[in-house]
Automatic annotation (TrEMBL):
A family per Pfam: MlaD
Residue ranges that the Swiss-Prot or TrEMBL entry lists as coiled coil: 245-298
GO molecular function, one term: ubiquitin binding
Alphabetical keyword list: Coiled coil
Domain of life: Bacteria
InterPro entries hit by this protein: GAT_dom (IPR004152), Mce/MlaD (IPR003399), MlaD_Phospholipid_Transporter (IPR052336)
Protein name: Phospholipid/cholesterol/gamma-HCH transport system substrate-binding protein
Boundaries of every GAT domain copy: 198-328
Length: 527
């Protein structure tokens, strides 16, 4: 054989790179939990372990100390076995709960180790105390029940709106207040003179008390003191008391004058202008009461934003539907799985290599979406025509070009259960864009490790001479050596005899758990 072509060298380089990446990942994987010689197992029973998978982390105070060995169902409960590879003292009052971390919602077991005076928990024992956080579905169900109770609270047994009844009673109360204000206004109008006289007397009394009460109190104190002295010493002091009383009586005309002045001032206050101001204030109160009554009537009829909130049944129904939709969306996002992989293969007949980056989204078990970025050393042959107008004889000129562009695959896959050939097998029908052309695929999943594949694409293609050739047909088998690594091979270019041959390849496929572990292993990565 001659020397290898450039395309064969590129294909060999791609395969060698993938093999090196596989060796690195294979070396890291065994180290995932082999972090010491300490190995202790414990058992936990949860009422619900939704989302918790095998090999999920076990953490104490946020630090990974072990992993989940298995998740089984025993007597209607989830039996979870865990392995601790770091020494942690667990007491009988330890508490285990299922938590969620990371952007992709990974479930893990968080353990609160407990403390004395509880005794230490022996290995292979059961952690009795567990906690389970509420799921999104439970939250949505509680919210729906709350809305139902609210609707029942605002509705009477006979179907009437309680808020409307309350508003009606408030309207009646407002009418009563309005009538009371009118009656009060009438009473004030009818007894204006009497009220004026009462105010005059009150002002006179207050003015007198303000000016004379201190002096009166002082005189009483003096009199009391003098009487005490008169009793103890002699009766001569009684004369002085009489003199003081005489002086007090002489001040009576001055007090009378003060009362006259007080009356005059009160008349000035209760003039006609102040009476009009009181009347205006009462009228404003009456207008405000009428406006409040009108607003409450509109609310009761369902007019305006507030009225619609209290009376529109559709608003409640829309809110309930929105809550149910959010619950379903959250459930779909939580159940969606993603896979990322790399693969490369070589055609033994032509020596051409092909490498692909794969991204697979699996919303449910019956369908998924496949996205691939493909590099092909064989390239695509295109025939182009140019019209040459220069020279003496214009003519058409045809050229054959080979393009080595990056190609893309975007397909929708539907999964069907095998009811005829093998129990547990599945058929997968794919269709869409295949390496930037239309294509279809049919796979058969015999078991999780063994998969048979077939693809046909690129109709209307040409060879290096520019001649039309049949579509590209590839049939093969894929076998997973371990959890992530797989080898694959089969027949390539089965419809074109010049390029027909076998292909061999190697690939790796990482799931959600593997991606999180790889990201967490990087310096500063997601933990």
């Amino acid at each position: 054989m001659g020397r290898l072509t450039l395309e064969a060298k590129v294909g060999a380089f791609v395969v060698a790179g993938l093999v090196g990446l596989g060796i690195i990942a294979t070396t890291i994987e065994p180290l995932k939990f082999q972090r010491g010689k300490y190995h202790e197992e414990y058992t936990i029973y949860f009422e619900n372990a939704a989302g918790l998978e095998k090999d999920a982390p076990v953490r104490v105070a946020g630090v990974t100390v072990g992993k989940v060995l298995s998740v089984d169902v025993v007597d209607g409960k989830a039996k979870v076995k865990i392995l601790l590879f770091k020494p942690v003292n667990l007491y009988k009052n330890a508490v285990a709960k299922i938590e969620t971390m990371g952007l992709m919602g990974e479930k893990y077991v968080e353990i609160s180790p407990g403390n004395p005076p509880a005794p230490l928990l022996k290995p292979n024992s059961v952690i009795q105390n567990t906690q389970i956080p509420s799921s999104m579905d439970e939250v949505m169900t509680s919210l729906n029940e709350l809305l139902t109770k609210f609707n029942q609270a605002v509705t009477t047994p006979d179907g009437r709106n309680r808020m409307a009844i309350i508003m009606d009673k408030v309207s009646q109360l407002t009418s009563s207040v309005n009538r009371a204000v009118v009656n009060l206004n009438s009473v004030v109008e009818e007894n204006k003179k009497t009220i004026k006289q009462v105010l005059e007397n009150a002002l006179s009394l207050s003015e007198m008390l303000k000016e004379d009460l201190p002096q009166v109190l002082e005189n009483v104190n003096t009199l009391t003191s003098q009487l005490s002295q008169m009793t103890l010493e002699n009766r001569e002091d009684i004369r002085k008391i009489v003199v003081n009383l005489k002086e007090a009586s002489e001040k009576a005309p001055q007090i009378a004058q003060n009362l006259d002045n007080l009356t005059e001032r009160l008349n000035q206050i209760l003039n006609e202008e102040n009476t009009r101001e009181i009347q205006t204030t009462l009228e404003n109160i009456e207008k405000t009461t009428a406006e409040l009554k009108e607003i409450l009537a509109k609310v009761n009829e369902g007019n305006g934003t507030i009225g619609k909130l209290f009376n529109d049944e559709k608003l409640y129904q829309n809110l309930t539907k929105t809550t149910e939709t959010l619950g379903k969306l959250a459930s779909k996002v939580e159940n969606t799985k993603t896979y990322i992989g790399f693969r490369g293969d070589v055609n033994t007949r032509t020596g051409e290599g092909r490498g692909a980056f794969t991204f697979q989204i699996v919303p449910s078990n019956d369908h998924y979406y496949l996205l691939e970025v493909v590099g092909d050393s064989q390239g695509k042959v295109e025939r182009k025509k140019y019209y040459i107008s220069s020279g003496s004889s214009p003519h058409w000129q045809e050229e054959i070009e080979t393009n080595y562009r990056t190609e893309f695959t975007l397909q929708y896959a539907r999964v069907f259960d095998d009811k005829w050939l093998h129990e547990g097998g599945k058929f997968v029908l794919r269709g869409g864009l295949k390496e930037s052309t239309g294509g279809f695929g049919l796979d058969y999943i015999y078991n999780p490790k063994l998969i048979f594949t077939s693809d046909i694409w690129d109709t209307g293609r040409k060879d290096s001479d520019g001649d039309d050739i049949p579509p590209h047909l590839r049939v093969g088998v894929r076998y997973f050596l371990k959890k992530n690594w797989f080898v694959y091979g089969g027949g390539d270019e089965l419809l074109y005899h010049k390029w027909r041959g076998a292909f061999l390849g190697l690939g790796v496929l990482f799931g959600d758990e593997d991606i999180k572990y790889l990201l967490g292993s990087m310096p500063g990565g997601i933990k």
